Backbone:
């Protein structure tokens, strides 16, 4: 096994590209990336709506081993981020090992190897599988009566119709998360009229997105200058304060964030009735915090209307509200998020003795440190269930998780074995995680959000960044058992 270790990676997004590069550096030559789409970039390929950008500072939303001195803005646009990942993908010749438009139908652990069946009716085998599927790629459509009755154009934000001219259209955007906020900010004033349908008001932190000058980008070509500009100490101190604020809504950091959000609303919304409708009824950070300095000016334009009245149903000509008023529309955009509890699914995944992953995840998805699942040996996840998806930069998270996985692969390669996380360890970990999660602002802040799983428990890392970094520094081998040594 050590000489001919075969590794399958599911997904050619940020985590899949990272996994392939690190495995190649590790000396593993037999790697296959399975990508259901026709291109690279994961969520940055799936999403291409107007106004799309990242809310992590550009220079910190990069691989640590492949900094980009050429970002255009402080916070990068979706197309520029996708271009960054595509460049790294081809630079590392990953196109030679990637199967595009190849969706995995089933994964089965049989006779010590993983059997992989794809939509191409071909069977592959691997000693190790790394799930790098991400969470923002299965669009969620709300259960609204009459959703198929609309006579105009309608689509999910992740299925944007770029061939449709919006200039003379009356557009309705449903959803007030980050996606809805970015779309409204981008389209306000660029169509006949824009209606923003808000179910829940959101707290927003100001985000001034300036651009880097040519002189700055030239300076950043020197790694020392770029490192100084990134100011790692200040950045990670801010990350730690943010994570503390999530854990304790009465912390100094939480109070500072709450003050900034309230001041942002107070200073930038001038109509008192509109301000009332935009004032959330929950604690800041209870939902994923939105970073925007563009939305408040956009929603106050004469061509833009905020609709806070609940939606009753969708009708032929538009959207009927609970007060029976009908808003006539030409286009409806569903900025309603994703099915964030899928992970490997809909792949049919079977572990030791045929245990079915859907059965193990019947209550809700769980994994030890979001990486390993008991009875599914040599299967590892990047940004898996209950990880720090809402806390820190996902690239930083994935890099630390991949280093952890490589330590396990080192043992697999040396001992010619399979590694399986212990069931009791996983269950104990999940009980502790769930208990800690119930103390976070996601649970105590008085809101419902996509962070809450089917059991109503926040599905995220409920400790600090320092805790995560310490946990990822080295696997606790007592949590695992080695099979077939």
Residues:
């Amino acid at each position: 096994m050590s000489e001919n270790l075969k590794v399958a990676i599911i997904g050619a997004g940020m985590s899949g590209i990272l996994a392939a590069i690190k495995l190649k550096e590790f000396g593993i030559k037999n790697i296959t990336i399975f990508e259901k789409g026709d291109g690279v970039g994961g969520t940055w390929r799936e999403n291409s709506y107007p106004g799309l950008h990242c809310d992590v500072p550009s220079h910190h939303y990069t691989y640590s081993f492949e900094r980009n001195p050429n970002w255009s803005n402080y916070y990068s646009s979706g197309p520029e981020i996708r271009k960054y990942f595509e460049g790294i993908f081809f630079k590392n010749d990953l196109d030679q090992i990637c199967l595009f438009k190849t969706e995995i139908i089933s994964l089965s652990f049989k006779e010590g190897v993983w059997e992989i069946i794809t939509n191409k009716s071909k069977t592959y085998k691997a000693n190790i599988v790394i799930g790098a599927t991400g969470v923002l790629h299965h669009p969620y459509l709300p259960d609204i009566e009459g959703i198929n009755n609309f006579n105009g154009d309608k689509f999910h934000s992740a299925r944007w119709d770029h061939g449709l001219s919006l200039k003379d259209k009356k557009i309705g955007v449903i959803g007030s998360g980050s996606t809805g906020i970015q779309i409204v900010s981008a389209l306000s004033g660029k169509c006949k009229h824009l209606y923003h349908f808000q179910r829940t008001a959101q707290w927003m932190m100001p985000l001034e997105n300036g651009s880097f000058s040519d002189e700055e980008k030239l300076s950043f070509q020197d790694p020392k200058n770029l490192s100084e500009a990134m100011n790692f100490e200040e950045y990670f101190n801010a990350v730690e304060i943010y994570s503390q604020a999530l854990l304790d809504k009465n912390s100094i950091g939480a109070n500072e964030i709450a003050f900034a959000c309230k001041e942002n609303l107070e200073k930038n919304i001038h109509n008192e009735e509109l301000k009332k409708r935009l004032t959330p009824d929950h604690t800041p950070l209870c939902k994923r915090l939105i970073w925007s300095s563009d939305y408040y000016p956009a929603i106050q334009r004469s061509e833009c209307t905020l609709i806070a009245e609940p939606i009753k149903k969708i009708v032929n000509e538009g959207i009927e509200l609970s007060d029976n008023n009908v808003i006539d529309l030409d286009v409806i955009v569903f900025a309603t998020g994703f099915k964030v509890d899928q992970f490997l699914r809909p792949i049919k995944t079977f572990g030791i003795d045929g245990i079915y992953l859907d059965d193990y995840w019947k209550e809700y998805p769980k994994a030890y440190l979001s990486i390993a699942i008991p009875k599914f040996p040599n299967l590892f996840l990047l940004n898996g269930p209950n990880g720090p998806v809402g806390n820190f930069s996902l690239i930083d998270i994935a890099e630390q998780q991949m280093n952890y996985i490589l330590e396990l692969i080192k043992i697999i390669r040396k001992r010619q074995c399979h590694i399986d996380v212990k069931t009791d360890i996983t269950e104990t970990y999940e009980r502790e995680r769930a208990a800690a999660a119930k103390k976070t602002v996601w649970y105590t802040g008085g809101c419902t959000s996509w962070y809450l799983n089917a059991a109503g428990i926040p599905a995220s890392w409920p400790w600090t960044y320092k805790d995560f970094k310490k946990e990822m520094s080295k696997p606790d081998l007592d949590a695992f058992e080695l099979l077939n040594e």
About this structure: The chain has a mean pLDDT of 95. The chain is about 30% helix and 20% strand. The longest strand covers residues 104-110. The radius of gyration is 23 Å.
